Amino acid sequence: MPEFDLVIRNGVVVDPETGLDAVRHVGIAGRSIAAVSERELSGARVVEAAGLVVAAGFVDLHSHAQSLAGRRLRACDGVTSALDLEAGRAPVAHAYDRDAAQGSPIHYGYSASWALARGAALGTVELDGEPSTELRMLGETGWRGTATPAQVGAMLAFLEGELAVGAVGVGFLLGYAPEVDPGEYLAVSRLAASSGVPTFTHSRELIETHPATLVDGPAEVVRAAAETGVHAHYCHVNSTAGRYVDRILGLVDRCRREGGRVTYEAYPYGYASTVIGAAFLSPEGLAAYGLEPSALIYLPTGERVADVARLERLRRSDPAGLVFMDFLDEQDAADRATLRRSLTTGDAIVASDAMPLVPLSDDFSEEAWPIGGTAVVHPRTAGCYSRALRLAREDGLPLAETLARCSLYPARVLEGCCPDMAKKGRVQIGCDADLVVFDPVEVTDRADIGCTTRVSRGIRHVFVDGVAVVGDGRLDLEVRPGRPIRASL
Description:
With about 500 residues, the protein is α/β, with parallel strands linked by helices. The protein is built from 14 helices and 23 strands.
């Protein structure tokens, strides 16, 4: 009788935690890795991986692409776990229940949403757990107002309840509400610290670009880690820091050397995506960054925003409309170097900030595959990890280092509150059979502004809990083995 349900044979197994980087045979029994062997193994199913790399599936801490179509794009990029921890959901129980009922090709999870808790406390939003609710709210102004002590208390009570049912930390969208009292951020950070969960923060503005800001955004994040003891995770440092990334990484390093717990992430693109009604995309906000309205591409029409008048009309008529926003020039050598540093300094984590898809046609369906031109989205949704691998290959960086940033390091961020994450991000006996098998020479992103949903090349197999979601480069549309990732307090 076969020893294993599945054997991946002759692949180069790379496990950054143990330092393994050699040809091995991987045996899978049920959901778990049962053998990593130099000798050949017998399995009910055998996948030949000669010349390919076998690595832990990528763990994305920052993915707003939580629909079926979005998760399929993620799987084709080697992602086996994708969590929305910057924005989160509210109530999280509703979001988890909905996903369990629909099924998912990859694992999923959510933080408790400070922004939605705030909107509810100020009476500007009704909570339903749907992702579109937060997108709509972010382009509005009512939820950004000053909160009374009673309203802050209501927020804290709500967030505490969300953590009690398994929310994976607290997500902060401070960049969308720069008027908020810094004391509120510290109060919620104390709650997270006392609950043993991280915070995931989109910081407010930098002092260099907004001298009148209430507090320098990066300094606020590290201050919270130092004063409250919370594990503070800094979201997409490349897009919030821009050309000032070295100062921000220096702040993080100093805080960590003094005992603070701060981690950070970046994605390998020089342009961002968000809602056009965001506070920092006002004409004044863009000017502070030295940008014109033409730095924005409005996704529903594909137009570059012509001028201030057009920008203001779009912000009024469709505040939740998604845009691309240039923040670095990828054609400029200095900007490319800045972007690379954000991805490779210290133990930087790769995270996609994958976005929801914007339908362009009545033919769009979550079930239809391939997506083609029926929807548009930031290319990082389809190609973030393959792009990170390609850039590292072009720069001659060690493959194991890049894989650690894509799987091991993000898994470690969550281990303190999600013990099951100790079984992800590794290719070791007893770990979850969440694996990606790829061609290290061929792997690359193919999604770009011209075709934003084109899947990556070189990702040959993706296994989630031992189930082949991608096999021989083809997505299996029938299987949905993804499970919820929850905190256990």
